[in-house]
Structures are given as C-alpha cells and as structure tokens.
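Ticket reopened. Same input as before:
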Amino acid sequence: MSRKHPQKRAKGDERLAADLKSNRAECPGKPQFTRADLTQVGPCCYELSRQGRPAMLAPARIYADEALLEAMLQGETLNQLANVASLPGVTGCVYGMPDMHTGYGFPVGGVAAMELPHGMVSPGGVGFDINCGVRLISLPIMREAAGSGVVDLTHELSRAIPSGMGTGGGVGLDRSDLNGVLEGGSRFAVERLGLGLPQDLDHTESGGCLPGANAEKVSYRACERGLDQLGTMGSGNHFVEVQVVDQVFDEAAAAAFGLAPGTLCVLIHTGSRGLGHQVCTDYVKLMDARMAAQGIKLPDRQLSCAPASSPEGQDYLAAMACAANYAWANRQAIGHRVRKAVTHLFRKVSGASVRVVYDVAHNIAKAEEHGGRQVLVHRKGATRAFGPGHPEIPSDYQAVGQPVLIPGSMGTCSYVLAGVAGTGELSWASACHGAGRSLSRTAAKQATTGSDVRRDLEAQGIVVRGASGQGLAEEAPMAYKDVDTVVGAVGAAGLARKVARLRPLGVIKG
Amino acid sequence: MRAVTRSGEHVGEWRLRIYADTAEELFAEAARAIARQCGPMGGELGPEQEITVEARDLPTLLVDWLNEMLGRSEIACAAFTEVTVLELTERGLRATVRGRRVTRWRSSMKAATYHDVEMARYGSRWRASVLLDI
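Engineering reply: fixed in the latest deploy. New output:
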C-alpha cells in the first residue's frame, strides 16, 4: 500500500493517474466559484468557467434560474460538480439539475457520462441508496367520490406498509428468494413471489430488472441487511403519499398516463434499503483502497472509482444491478400492498384497475446509447427523461414520452413531466429528481417543530401518519427549495415538459 | 474531560464531530453517537461481541468502524451503547460492544463517508469529523 511501490495499474488507471496529476496541486484551498465564473449559454442554462481549473476534463453546465443558481453558489455544490468533470473518461458535459445541492463526491442532482468500456464507474456517483426512486400509482377513484375514504386509505396504508426494522411486516425472504430478487428484480417479485401484476412491469424503468446482476458480487453482510427489508419504506425523506391530480398542463399526455383531473394517486418514494447502502459501502471501500494502493489521489475520496472494464468496475456494476433490482422489487412489493389496501377499502375497485403509471430510478448508473455511442450515465439525484419514440419506454407512452416523476417536499405538490426529444445532447436525457434541500436538518429543527409542521399540514387538509416529531421537522417544506421553481427551470431549459401537478392529501412517513 | 459529539452543518447529510482525551475514547464515543440515533430501546443488554476492523490510517479506520457498527446495528435491530476499545493502532482496532434491541427503528443513517474525514490530535484533545449519509 506504499505510494513508493504502487501496484501495477490496469488499463484506464494509467490515464486516471495522469489526468489527476494537476488535480493534486489544485485540491487544497480550491477557491469557491462565484457568479462571475458562470456564463449563461441558454434558457436557464449556465456553464462553469474552467479557467484556472486544468483538472476539469469536461465542461460543466447547470440548469437553474437566477435564484436557484444563487443558492448553488453557497457551499460546495459547484466545486463538487467541477470535481465530477475531472473524472477520467468523462465525456460530453457534466450537468447539474435545478434541484442540485451539496452532497459528497458527486453533488446531489449531478449527471455525468463516462466513455465505455474504459471510463470510470464511481459508486459515489450513484450514492448509498442505489435506485432510490419513485413509483406513481393511479386509482380508479375520483377525489369527490372518495370522501372520507382518503383518510381511511392513508390510515390503512400506514398500517400495511412498514417503515423498516423493529416494526415487522416486510416480505420475509429466504436466501434463495433473495438471490432471485437480486437477479430478477420486479419480474421475480411478480412471477415468483406473487407481488403484483405482470402489467406493472411494462410501466417500470428497465422492466424492473437491470441486466448483468450477479448475486455473487453482493457481500454476505449486504444480503443479511436485505433479508427482512423487502416491502419496507425506511425513514429519512422516504414516504408514501395519497395525492390528487390537481392540475393538468398537457391533456394528451395526462390522458395517456391515466391522470385525469381529480383522480386519486399514490406516490411511493423509497430505494434499496440497507442492502443497497452496504453494496455502496463495500465498493467505495474497495475502490478507495485500490486507488490508494496505486498512489492515485482524487479531489474527494468519495469519488473513488475504477475503470468500468476493470474487475473491480465490473464487480461493482454487477452488485449495483442487484441492489437496483432489489429497489424495484421493494417498490413492487409496496405497490402490491397499496393495491390490496385500495381494493379492501373500495370494494368495487378491481386490482387491475389500480394502475402503475410509472416507476423511475433517480440514483443509478446505466449503460445507454446517446448519439450512436455507448456511455455509462451516472445519475445521482436525477431522473432519466427519454423523449417520445425512445425504444426503452412503454409502447403506450411512445407518442408522449417517458413519465418523469418529481416528488415535492412533504405537503407541497409533486409533478409528472414527460421526456422530450433531443435531450440526450442537453442533459444525457435527464431531469431533476425533486425539490432539493435548501436547509440542513439541524437548521430545519431550529426553524420549526414537528408539532408546528403537523398542524400546518392538517390545516391544509393533509393527513399525516407514522412520522416522529423530529422527522417532521427535518423534512419540513421550508427545508426544501420551491418545487414549482425547480420544475419551471426544467421546462424553461427544455429538459422535460409539464404534464400534471399532484396535490398531497395524506402523508405516511417512516 | 468527557468525550462529546457535536453536529456540524451540511445541507443534505449529518456532519458528526467528536472530541475526546484519547483516540480510543473517540472511537467509542463515535459508535455511541450512532447508537443514540437508532431509536427507543427495550429489554436486557445483549451478549458481548468482539469486533476487529483494519484500515490504512486512522481517519479511514474511523469511517470503516462506523460502517461496521451501522451494519451490525441494522441487522441486529440493536443499539450498541456499551463500547470498549481494547486495542487501537494506526491501522487496526479491536473492541467489544453490547447493545439493546431497538423497539422502533428511527435511524435514517445509511453510511459513514470518506468525504473530508479528519481525525487528529490538537493539544491535549483528539478531534474527528465524519460525514454520514442520511
């Protein structure tokens, strides 16, 4: 592990070391970007100056309006995006979405594509919650007709969907079934575990199963963490919400998505739980040690990476695919419970009419074709947004584009957007993933209390279940950017178009 | 002086700062800080478990130690509040832990990160800073 005697470098690593030479001198005391470093290059689109930053191998573009940009200039957000642009193998531009904020390694809301086969794959560019994402389910029930049934449904969902450890109620798996979930994702959940309907798979990104998954690349500890957590929501910013379609902006697309005004929906936000966290922990540790052994220093250790073609890179991609599949199966299992709760409470509703609108990941790395080239797109806190006609979107959405689901903060509206053509060149066909935090959890707790948040939500007619006072304060709407502004910037920049706005009626937190 | 922890500011995650007279006590206090986030506990103290962790330097060891405790805690659904560091070197740690079952899991911590991790002695006190993903 001595830097005097570095291990032999694999293909791709040699370029990594060479590309990062200038970075080492640049790391300490790197100056903060200022507004003067940003040049507007399009509507709600700004490019970071690379002057004095030779380590940046690609341009960095940020999608935001002036107010969002001002917030990004605070903290480390733009430095983190510049660090991503320094990763070897990075191609085209790296992008910051309008909800981008400071993270570690990659900023949250960062998108980068790497050349294949030898460009880098970075576990930190996906994040600990691999395939954290959202699933939107539309119900064949109108708000007016439901009456107090909305409160009953929120309550029933809070009983049916466990938050996690210590609460029981998840889908207990044996090791064989866990392996099936890891390699088969939602398809295994439907076909072998009886969790949901085959048509759910058509409306799930990648059919709910990423190819290349190999359960042997997932550690024993990660599997242990995953055995009892399938069908659980977790805590933090994860939630299940009962919502109503409040406004439609694009009638044709809304009709295709089954989102008529007044329709009740359920939005599920969760990911790969402890299993995914452990996969990321294991591979960040492995790659960090590997880079140290080779004497390679990155501007941020949490960006540790390996060539996608290396054994370590291949192993990570196989394990990441397993965690992504677990996450899709997790949302499939929760969706199954939503369907059961709805048909139990509303006796005239059939299971098949409780319909998955779409399920999309916002923390993932995927091999995709853009402009005739295969690249590995890292999306950390960003949503894939393919336009009409793309072969990877469902046949019934081909004419309107892929649904892009943007959850708002607790108590604020969520949005359904649709992908538009030509965004491969704008953002690697990506859009934002939510409102984006603006206050730390500590600051949020200093600014409000859980009881105040609960009272405010209830005053708006929003039922709250399952949340602790601390959790409510930490996730208070004031801790997030304004989702209307974020979605407005996405639309103005041409990354996706607005289809419908969903208003929360019931919130279930872990 | 007693070992203490403080929360540092980070918009999305949790910056944990730990202060202690000795490096051993700093490691123990960091683990107890994780345990305190787990949620309400019940029942008897569980059996003692011995843990060893190895890494290339002290800051890396601290992150790997916290990730070891996060993983164990979640699998056992337990908060390991009793922590004794038996042996600590620049590259390795041996400790015993005991914990109680958590009756309602509240922790939203996913992992400790290497991002800007620091651990060093300043005067007579040890100080460390670790960012946890939540």
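Chain A touches chain B through 48 residues (CB under 8 Å). Residues 13-127 of chain A form one domain. Please confirm and we'll close it.
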